[in-house]
Amino acid sequence: MTAETTALDAAQRRNLWTGLAAFLVTTMFWGANLPLTTILLRAFDPFWLTLWRLVLATTALAAVVWATEGRAALRVGISRLRFVLLGLSLSAFFIDYNLALRFTNTITAAAVMAGAPIYAVITLWLVTRAPPERGLGVALALTVVGSAIAIYGRAGAGGLHLEGGEPLVMLSIVLWTLYSILAQRWFPAGTSQLRRAYVASLASVVWLFLYWGVCRIAGAVGPPNIAPGSDIILLLVITAVFATALGNYTWNIGVSRLGIAMGALWQNAVPVFGVLIAMLFGIQSTMEQIVGGAVVVAGALYMQWRRFRA
């Protein structure tokens, strides 16, 4: 084995470990976001909350980009058309996700989201024609079965109820996958993942402000809450910085190292961390949620294990 081959193997393993760590951190951030967002929605309407979460996230990302890469890195660096379309894809995801949760029973939404890896893989194939890698079927089966077990434990005797928003749940996964593809393809080679996340967030703010303005004029939302309590402001800053800003950044790192299909497997682990973190707020979990979460994580780790073997 030559020195070059050894160095290449070492670099590949670093990429695998970096991608794994990035997806794990992302999953933890997004899991924590679930109970915190539930609290924030008591003080803000979904459109106003999303707008200001992205404003704060963009500000945080801009500060880090300036500090680490210099002021020149704050320039967009892509064409105006790509900037507009990138922001459209990301903002459309946030708005669609809010509407999906508003018009879908919580348990039913979780059941539809369990198929996130499948929707993501299909979208990835349609856009890039990239064939799924070997072993993905087993990993998909484990994550979907694990999600089904966890959802059964949450549903109890209530069962699933269709309320019309279920297609929007599926569409949100498609939009997020599309954004992930564009964020990796539309920037010059060598652009940091931090800067990609900053540009995408900046582009989405314009669209989100437009969406909120239209809804306000149409009477779909009430007057904005511009004087929330200090505890609400603190939670808003936490979710904006960690879940929205850093979560987007670490997600991009994971995608650049391991791909979107692997990230989609980890997305099903978000409710697992959401349940664990919700327990800190006094919300008890069921045995089915714990067992189902373990199966979901096993599916993602199985695919990671195959990568290491290869």
Kindly list the characteristics that best describe this protein.
single chain, 310 residues, mainly alpha, 12 helices, 0% strand, globular
Can you characterise this structure?
It is a single chain. This protein has 310 residues and is mainly α. Helix content is 78%, strand content 0%. Helix 4 crosses helix 7. The protein is globular, with a radius of gyration of 20 Å.
Short description:
By secondary structure, the chain is an all-alpha fold.
| Average pLDDT for all residues | 79
User: Class by helix and strand content?
Assistant: mainly alpha
- The run of helices and strands is HHHHHHHHHHHH
User: What's the number of extended β-strand segments?
Assistant: 0
Shape category: globular
SSE inventory with pairings:
Layout: H1 3-40, H2 46-69, H3 80-102, H4 106-113, H5 116-128, H6 136-155, H7 166-185, H8 193-218, H9 230-258, H10 260-267, H11 270-278, H12 287-309
